[in-house]
């Protein structure tokens, strides 16, 4: 019976896609409802659903070819918004969405070197996450992250003595910041907002123009360069960028400060960044909202990610990164993902999220 459902969905969808019938809200709702129910019973159905999602057309850049971007730094004027007709290359508010083929890497690197741009990278490796992921993360960052610019790594951990000794290239440095170990992984995730705010105020703002914040359970596999720099940078979640907005997993609890009825995109908290001033305001605002929820005995659906989405809904990012900047290979083939620049590592929640 399950195969019959999927066969029917496949046939109907392909016919509609071929005739370019894009007003498919009823069909899309049916597709997701059936597949979501089946996915709970059998994992491979989830992969099949992911394959179908890749056929859902994205919106297109609303700007006319003669129009220029309203936001972003002056270097972004060189972006070719029309080089990728298969994806959305700019937002409704004029911010670029960065995809492979839109930019000249050398031009960006030269411009940022001329501007003496510098970057801080923050990453949290608390408890068992340090031994499982940190070394691979740092080694891959040395090969692919902002290789043309000065970079300072900030490793936040409860066990500083276990941070691996990594050979760093010229103009690269690493600082270790001790943080408290919380009893629940949800609190570890949410409290990073406070730790980043404090680090920016006490150290980062004195030597770096930009800050990027990463989860540790991922690895760089391709260029993650200066084309990503901007005042406020958000990442399209790999699992949501093709889905209708009605399926975004915003926090729907009106009691939470993260509550959202709708939004622009669904952003992934595994990667976000911007100027140090903007990131400080972002993390400080999210932390205050988290603490207000705690006082009201409320916890947002996806913790700090829910609060980050709320912030980016109210304060539009000046640059959006496509999912090629943080991809999960379990999704399978997608025709619009020409390169992958960062990949999710294998998740081991059953063992790594256990607290002693």
TrEMBL record:
The chain crosses the membrane at residues 12-34. The keyword DNA-binding does not apply. Gene3D superfamilies: Spore Coat Polysaccharide Biosynthesis Protein SpsA, Chain A (3.90.550.10). It comes from the Eukaryota. The keyword Nucleus does not apply. InterPro entries: Glyco_trans_6, Nucleotide-diphossugar_trans. UDP-N-acetyl-alpha-D-galactosamine binds at residues 124-126, 129, 215-217. One of its GO terms (molecular function) is hexosyltransferase activity. PANTHER family: ALPHA-1,3-GALACTOSYLTRANSFERASE 2, GLYCOSYLTRANSFERASE-RELATED. This is Alpha 1,3-galactosyltransferase 2. It comes from Hucho hucho.
């Amino acid at each position: 019976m399950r195969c019959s459902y999927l066969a029917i969905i496949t046939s109907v969808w392909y016919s509609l896609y071929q005739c370019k019938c894009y007003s498919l809200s009823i069909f899309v709702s049916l597709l997701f409802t059936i597949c979501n129910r089946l996915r709970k019973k059998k994992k491979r159905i989830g992969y099949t659903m992911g394959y179908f999602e890749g056929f859902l057309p994205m919106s297109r850049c609303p700007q006319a070819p003669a129009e220029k971007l309203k936001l972003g730094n002056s270097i972004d004027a060189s972006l070719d918004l029309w080089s990728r007709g298969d994806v959305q290359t700019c937002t409704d508010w004029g911010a670029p969405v960065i995809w492979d083929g839109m930019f000249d890497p050398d031009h960006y690197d030269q411009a940022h070197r001329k501007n003496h741009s510098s970057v801080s990278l923050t990453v949290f490796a608390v408890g068992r996450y340090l031994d499982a992921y940190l070394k691979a993360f740092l080694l891959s960052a040395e090969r692919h992250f902002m290789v043309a610019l000065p970079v300072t790594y900030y490793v936040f951990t409860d066990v500083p003595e276990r941070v691996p000794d990594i050979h760093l290239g010229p103009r690269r440095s690493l600082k270790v910041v001790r943080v408290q170990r919380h009893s629940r992984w949800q609190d570890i995730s949410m409290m990073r907002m406070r730790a980043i705010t404090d680090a920016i105020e006490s150290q980062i703002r004195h030597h770096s123009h930009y800050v990027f914040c990463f989860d540790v359970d991922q690895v760089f596999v391709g260029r993650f360069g200066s084309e990503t720099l901007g005042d406020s940078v958000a990442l399209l979640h790999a699992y949501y960028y093709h889905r209708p907005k009605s399926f975004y997993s915003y926090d729907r609890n009106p009691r939470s400060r993260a509550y959202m009825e709708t939004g622009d995109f669904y952003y992934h908290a595994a990667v976000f960044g911007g100027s140090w001033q903007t990131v400080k305001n972002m993390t400080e605002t999210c932390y205050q909202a988290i603490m207000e929820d705690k006082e009201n005995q409320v916890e947002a659906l996806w913790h700090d990610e829910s609060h980050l989405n709320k912030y980016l809904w109210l304060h539009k990012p000046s640059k959006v990164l496509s999912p090629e900047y943080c991809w999960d290979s379990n999704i399978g083939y997608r025709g619009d993902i020409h390169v992958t620049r960062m990949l999710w590592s294998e998740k081991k929640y059953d063992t790594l999220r256990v607290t002693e």
